[in-house]
């Protein structure tokens, strides 16, 4: 399974598409890192997120505990607090780090409401690369306001030989948003198609990097479906294949629902007790009946791992089409 640890709702950015920063948790109400020892070992992928996790003074302790639970521990951050990440990665260069940006400098700083945010993100990237962090890259949330920068950001990442994770704007309790929309849908859809094509024809140096881009193209096909407002490309496995821990220590199905779907409380319960509880089963029934059709990394990637045939078939089919001078199949399931 895969897991996401929302360490805090505090954030030093002021993003318009996410208003976590308007509803911060206080340090006194955030979970004690010791409860994370209750998590099982062998988790496929574990993501530390927020808010911004670097605002937690006990982040090094959180990393120490979670590094025993998985071989793939990731920190998602805006990269503003370079010194915090510098100290952690000097000890843990095996960490995966994704630094959030919303485009090139002008667009990024305007959308994130963070003065010199791009500058800080880039300085953090350079510092962590010097620390020999190999799984290093950026993450971008696509909206109508930054979609024109998408291909440029991708090309920047190719030239810098680093990863680019991406999502599109969503509405949920987590973001405190219900009005995220993309007004210039046609432009966004065309740019997404160009981006998917660029991923499928990746010019990255390593073969492994090119393969990652091919399957990231499938993730972006799912994002294109989300923009169009149609059915997910794969079924959601929230609360079965993945889970979230919120800053209070509650175990949630996901971060995409309108209201938190709480499975249990890790402060007072053991993991197995929560996972096998009647409350967790009720949440899984809610997931099955959910019609939000969100497509975010926390649930999309586990779905691809569980249902690998569809992504593999689509990638091979698209690559063959392009070899014959045709475009990839962007048709949607409902069309």
Overall body shape? globular
Q: What are the secondary-structure elements, in order, as H or E?
A: EEHEHEHHEHEHHEEEHHHH
Termini distance?
Answer: 32 Å
Strand content: 5-15%
**Order of strands side by side in the largest beta sheet?**
6-5-4-3-2-1-7-8-9
Largest sheet: 9 strands, mixed
Give me the secondary-structure category: alpha/beta
**Average of pLDDT:** 95
What do these coordinates show?
The chain is α/β, with parallel strands linked by helices and 335 residues long. 39% of the residues lie in helices and 13% in strands. The chain is built from eleven helices and nine strands. The chain has helices spanning 59-66, 82-91, 105-112, 117-130, 150-159, 185-200, 207-228, 271-275, 278-289, 297-306, 309-323, and strands spanning 2-6, 45-49, 73-77, 96-100, 135-142, 163-168, 242-245, 250-252, 262-265. It has a nine-stranded mixed sheet, with helices on both faces. The relative contact order is 0.12.
Short description:
By secondary structure, the protein is α/β, with parallel strands linked by helices. Helix content is 39%, strand content 13%.
Give short descriptive properties of this protein.
335 residues; alpha/beta; 9 strands; 13% strand; globular
SSE blueprint:
Elements: E1 2-6, E2 45-49, H1 59-66, E3 73-77, H2 82-91, E4 96-100, H3 105-112, H4 117-130, E5 135-142, H5 150-159, E6 163-168, H6 185-200, H7 207-228, E7 242-245, E8 250-252, E9 262-265, H8 271-275, H9 278-289, H10 297-306, H11 309-323
Parallel strand pairs: 1-2, 1-7, 2-3, 3-4, 4-5, 5-6
Antiparallel strand pairs: 7-8, 8-9
């Amino acid at each position: 399974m895969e897991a996401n640890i929302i360490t805090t709702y505090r954030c030093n950015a002021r993003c318009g598409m996410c208003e976590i920063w308007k509803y911060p948790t206080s340090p006194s109400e955030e979970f004690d890192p010791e409860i994370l020892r209750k998590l099982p070992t062998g988790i496929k992928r574990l993501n530390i997120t927020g808010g911004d996790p670097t605002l937690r003074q006990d982040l090094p302790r959180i990393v120490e505990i979670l590094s025993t639970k998985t071989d793939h521990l990731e920190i998602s951050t805006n990269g503003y607090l370079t010194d915090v990440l510098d100290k952690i990665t000097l000890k843990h260069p095996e960490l995966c780090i994704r630094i959030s940006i919303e485009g090139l400098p002008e667009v990024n700083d305007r959308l994130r409401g963070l003065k010199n945010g791009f500058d800080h993100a880039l300085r953090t990237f350079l510092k962590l690369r010097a620390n020999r962090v190999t799984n290093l890259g950026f993450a971008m949330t696509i909206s109508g306001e930054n979609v024109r920068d998408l291909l440029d950001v991708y090309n920047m990442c190719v030239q810098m030989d680093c990863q680019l994770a991406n999502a599109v704007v969503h509405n949920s309790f987590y973001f405190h948003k219900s009005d995220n929309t993309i007004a210039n849908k046609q432009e966004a859809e065309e740019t997404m198609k160009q981006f998917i094509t660029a991923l499928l024809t990746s010019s990255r140096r390593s073969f492994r990097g090119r393969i990652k881009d091919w399957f990231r193209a499938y993730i972006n096909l799912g994002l294109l479906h989300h923009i169009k407002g149609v059915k997910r490309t794969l079924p959601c496995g929230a609360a079965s294949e993945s889970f979230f821990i919120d800053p209070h220590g509650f175990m949630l199905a996901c971060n995409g629902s309108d209201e938190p779907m709480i499975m249990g409380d890790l402060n007072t319960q053991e993991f197995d007790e929560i996972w096998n509880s009647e409350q967790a089963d009720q949440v899984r029934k809610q997931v099955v009946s959910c019609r939000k059709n969100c497509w975010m990394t926390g649930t999309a990637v586990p779905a691809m791992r569980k249902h690998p045939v569809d992504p593999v078939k689509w990638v091979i089919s698209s690559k063959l089409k392009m070899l014959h001078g045709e475009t990839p199949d962007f048709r949607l399931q409902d069309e």
